[in-house]
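Figure 6 in text form: structure in, sequence out.
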């Protein structure tokens, strides 16, 4: 396969892998309830802070992180680091937010689908961690590299 085709495929893969992350991160700026009332947030807060409700500032912090790190991967700016951070975040989100193994009926089916969707995104993030952002990355415009350092 020609290198230019490979470069385009890596770029499109980065965009597709992070599109949902960026979209739902940005949505949290517009409605913090999306974060605060999310089952993953509730499960995380119960596990680490008892029954406490997530503060609004945490919703905004998550929105900044999720949107920013997703955009970093998308455009190829420090993509390996951003992928690593998103992988940690997505792992916690998946565990706390979609515990299909403890559910039954329609709730189990729905959460199992989300769980495995998140695993697919985690796999894509691991691929970026392993291979870098490729030649069509923002880091390559500023550093003159080949995508291996980001």
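Output sequence:
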């Amino acid at each position: 396969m020609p290198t230019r085709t490979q470069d385009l495929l890596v770029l499109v893969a980065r965009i597709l892998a992070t599109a949902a992350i960026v979209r739902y991160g940005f949505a949290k700026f517009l409605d913090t309830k999306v974060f605060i009332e999310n089952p993953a947030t509730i499960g995380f807060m119960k596990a680490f802070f008892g029954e406490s409700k997530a503060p609004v500032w945490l919703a905004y912090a998550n929105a900044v992180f999720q949107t920013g790190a997703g955009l970093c991967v998308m455009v190829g700016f420090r993509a390996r680091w951003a992928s690593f951070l998103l992988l940690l975040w997505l792992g916690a989100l998946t565990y706390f937010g979609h515990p299909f193994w403890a559910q039954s009926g329609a709730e189990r089916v729905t959460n199992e689908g989300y769980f495995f969707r998140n695993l697919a995104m985690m796999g894509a993030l691991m691929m970026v961690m392993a291979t870098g952002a490729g030649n069509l990355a923002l880091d390559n415009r500023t550093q003159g590299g080949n995508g291996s350092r980001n």
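Caption detail: The chain is about 75% helix and 0% strand.
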